[in-house]
Automatic annotation (TrEMBL):
Domain of life: Bacteria
Organism the protein comes from: Lacinutrix iliipiscaria
The protein's name in its UniProt record: YitT family protein
Keyword Cell wall biogenesis/degradation carried by entry: no
Record keywords, A-Z: Cell membrane, Membrane, Transmembrane, Transmembrane helix
Amino acid sequence: MSHSTSEPFSLKSIFSLKSLLLKFIGVLCATIAIKGFMIPNHFLDGGILGISILVHEFYHIDVSIPLILLNLPFVYIGYKKIGKNFAAHAFLSLIILGILINILPIPPVTYDHFLTAIFGGVFVGLGIGFVIRGGGVIDGLEVIAEYTNKKLGLSTSEIIMAINTTIFLVIAFFLGIEKAMYSIITFFTALRVSDYVVDGFEKLISLTIISPEPELVKQIIVNDFNKPITVYKGERGNLPGNYGVKYDCDIIVAVVTRLEMHKIKKAIAEAEPKAFMFVQNIREVGGGITIKKNSH
């Protein structure tokens, strides 16, 4: 995701059919998690959602009230630090969430604690992920993490994890260690699911190939799959028992999506079985010829 404080305000982007549909699906999933799993079982999650449910547990007020009120300062921070479009997307997502929580009659799905922790986390993750794909957020911690990762160089997930660790310690102190442990399961499930929904098959991966037939590999990647490559000059050999035996070689690197990676690896392995390949996850990509991600 990329934001800029100088980007022009765009109502067309905010109210586009795709953006609204993704927000609605995400908010629906979050509402199912809150009313169908979390509240009936007195379960908590991390972030503003967890704090809002905690307020609901203590003071018995509608969970949508603290959920919206606690998020508003973060929407303002998003407006000041990230941009008008981002803040508008976030505010619209919160309004939809408040409406659905109040009008949808969702009965408790299960009272099993383990199923609640797992599937509550799944629906929270789906909700957060789809809303992000639609350009908004429903948890203020995502705003802080989105802005802070530009300053500290940490990933959004790492920042959210650090903040939520503090929240879980508070939960353990006031509600007991068992509630805190179930909350951690819910949080990690939601984190993994939301990451996959946001990135999905578009997650970028670095594929590196070292082959005795480099031109064949280059042709497959560039001509057959229409992907740009970078070539480093390296050295093969220096194997155990034959140290000192070495050859110049090309080290071919391509940035591809998760889905493309499997297809390209299969094609290279069939054409050149001796090719050595390894993959690395990429935290962030910018510039050059890359796949354009949705921006807010």
